[in-house]
Amino acid sequence: MASSSRTIERFDDKARETFEHAGRTTVYRGELLRHSVYDRVLHWSIALFFFLALFSGFGIYLPWLFRWFTPIFGGGQLSRIMHPYFGVAFVFFFSLQVLNWFQLMLWAPGDTRWMRSIKAITSGEEKMDPPETGFFNAGQKVMFWEIIAGCIVYIITGTILWAGAKTFGGTAVAISYVLHDISALIMLGGIFIHIYQSTIGEPGTFQAMIRGAVSEAWAWTFHPAWYKEVTGRDAQEACDEVRRKLYGDTRQAQPAASKESAAAGNVHAGVIPAEIRGRQYISLATFRKSGAAVYTPVWFAEADDKIYFMTSSKTGKYKRIRNNPQVKIAACTMSGKITGPEFAATARILPPADFARVRQMINRKYWLARVPFLWRNTDTCLEITPG
Amino acid sequence: MISGHTNPSPGFAMQRDLEVCKLVDTTTCIGCKACEVACVEWNDMPFTPTTFDNTYQTMPETSYHFWNLIKFNEHQNSDGTIQWLMRKDQCMHCADPGCLHACPADGAIVKYANGIVDFNEENCIGCEFCVSGCPFNIPRFNPETKRVYKCTLCSDRVGEGLEPACIKACPTGCLKFGTKDDMKFIAEERAKQLRDNFGWQNAGVYDPQSVGGTHVIYVLHDATDPERYGNLPKNPTIPWSYTWWKWLAKPVLGTFALFGLLGVLAHHVTHGPRVAQPEPPAKDGANV
User: Fold this and answer.
1) How far is CA A28 from CA A32, A212, A351, in A?
2) DSSP one-letter code for B29
3) Quick check: bond before A255 cis, omega within 30?
4) A266 vs B: CB within 8 A
5) Are residues A200 and B273 in contact, defined by beta-carbon separation less than 8 angstroms?
6) Alpha-carbon distance B221 to B228, whole Å?
7) Interface pTM (ipTM) of the complex?
8) What integer best gives the mean pLDDT of chain A?
9) Contact at 8 Å (CB) between B219 and B23?
10) In chain A, whose CA is at the least distance from the CA of B284?
């Protein structure tokens, strides 16, 4: 095993060296080398034969596509004759890429964590990939291993379909026919995501496969662990340093700073502003992920310079606070019209144990709150700390 | 019905409401092979050296230039007696043809309004899916031309008002040709005769409904066991790969894949790109 992996290593090194002579990769200042000439040549060879196989396969995939796609390859007969050769070439070049990238594509514990936060990453909520994201992220690795699985399916079912029923029997052909389709459909879905992510989805990625180099900012944003490995610097620190240089201290740079900046206003942190004390309603502004504020008038109770209110865990404000505890409060009318200055505050979702206590405070203040059955959905209480 | 075609089949909406049918009465076949010769002769096929397998059979299987083969089978009955069975093996011209379901090529397989299923070799792409789609194992691939061939029910003769060549050559009248209704009637009469007068209690007509009936039907001594006539399937079925998978799942899943394309574009519109950090702070400082 060890000797065979050394052989592969030697083979890959030789190939990279050979291709480096044949081609060229210029890495400008502020950039990092991402893909060698060998990486790139393999990638585009794979891509070429993937699409040739895909389009020649489309013609045979559905009779309705026959007239659209077979003319590209000079008719049905030529499509059918060439499709398997395109497939073989695709598998061949991908196999070389497997040897080339095998070590980099091995699954790491950080990849599982990456997959868990995939929603936050793809939605853009996570501005940078998780710090343990290496040369390839978990999504790329999933695609890589899916293609390996797909290639195995292609080789087996493709051989059966190529040789035909006279060699393998009608049943084997009929089953292979379906599996070949499924594998193709999965890859078709995957290629959309792959092309999107590497072009307009994450700008700056495409040049990695064209010129071979990426900007340092790209590297620390999308592959922080790889950035650290190459430069020895922490990705977050590097990013923050540039951010300070360019934009000064901002909230994004240090989330903790927001409290201070809010306190620097005309309010003392931790004290309920006089404009709010004793009022019937406050307007509570919560923030969407996009940053847009949503204002809701709420009842509230005061105790120990903290403001308490109740709501249902199904409401939008609850969900927004769960995502972002930064809120703003202001005195307002019953219908929500703001009548006083706004104050920054931090909300905290209280554990269920505190519910009875808050409920009691609200009940004391508002007689309507004491009406039974009206507040059945109210199941959560929150605490707002001004400042 | 034409493979890969949304157009109606040739002969559609014409005054030709008669479905043709070939009747093969296995009980009166004498195994003379005149039909084999007539088929080779009419279709101008070369005769090649064959394999002798200790039977009267001309060759083990039909081939791309031998579409009509009398299959000889010795069947031992439960009482120890032997039946020597001869069955004319050729394309069955199914009403619901598996080959046509499987064919991806435009116009390579045509089912005419009169029921004949014909291969148009000039359109065949040689994928051989029809071979696995056929429940009777009929289509034969010619590796030289890379096309698939089979019995045409002499569609060229039928089109001119003639009977197929094999029918014309049959000396015993065990082969008949006419409309499906007529042949079905004659076949049922013959089966009744066999049951009533010859002691073949299980005699019957082979016209399998699992493929919508066929345009070649058999009278069998024992219709309950067609397998004994050289692998004539009792319940011929088309693999589901070429039925609901091909004609329902594939277009639906293919469309879903296209939605994937729309999906990534929609993502771009709603969420925008993820850009290399640091990006400029949002205008109101609330871009979290």
Assistant:
1) 8, 11, 54
2) -
3) no
4) no
5) yes
6) 10
7) 0.88
8) 89
9) yes
10) A291
